[in-house]
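Data deposition worksheet. Section B asks for the primary sequence of the deposited chain exactly as it was used as input, without tags or linkers unless they were present during the calculation. Section C holds the resulting structure in token form. Section D is free text for depositor observations; keep each observation to a single sentence. Incomplete worksheets are returned to the depositor.
Section A, Depositor: J.P.
Section B:
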Amino acid sequence: RCFLLAAFIIKYRKWLSAIKNVMYMKIVKQLTINWQELRQFSIARWPEEMGTTHGVDHWDRVAKFGEMLYVDGVDMNVVIAFAYLHDVERKNNYIDDGHGQRASMLVDSIRHNYLRDFNDEQVSLLKRACELHTLRHRTGNISIDTCFDADRLDLPRVGILPDYKLMATSQGAKIATNPHYLRFYDEKVSAWSNMNLENRFKK
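Section C:
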């Protein structure tokens, strides 16, 4: 019985790995955004004294959580752009009700350079995601809602566990219901912190 169980676990892990590889290749094939360029733009714009609570470390994790939440129909160009823009207009690390609206306005100002490959629909989705990410639980649009949940899954950085009832996607809710989410989060963050960013999303 132990042998059969071990064989099943190995086969199951291989199956999961194959599924993840397929999804990853779908993401890579879809991406047109120069995310490294956008990331550097946001880093240069971010005040050093603001630290990393809502800065680049957070942005990188939101991008990775977005990748984890990917399902068919999600526009990952929008999700990755959201990761690096949604908090960049913050004036503080506490209550700043207008930062989403300011980020949405910023999208318009960089549309023809950093977002030059975005069409009108992608710009609209990105603007709505930035504007609403602290104001709405869900919108019903899978790309925007994936942005919301990718941000919420990084809440443990400020000592808050994401509430599965307030997640916008079924994938996000499933992850948030993990009774060992803090351990899961710590393991993911540790692994991502050792990642060579230049190797992400290479075609």
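Section D:
The mean pLDDT is 87.
Residues 2-30 form the longest helix (29 residues).
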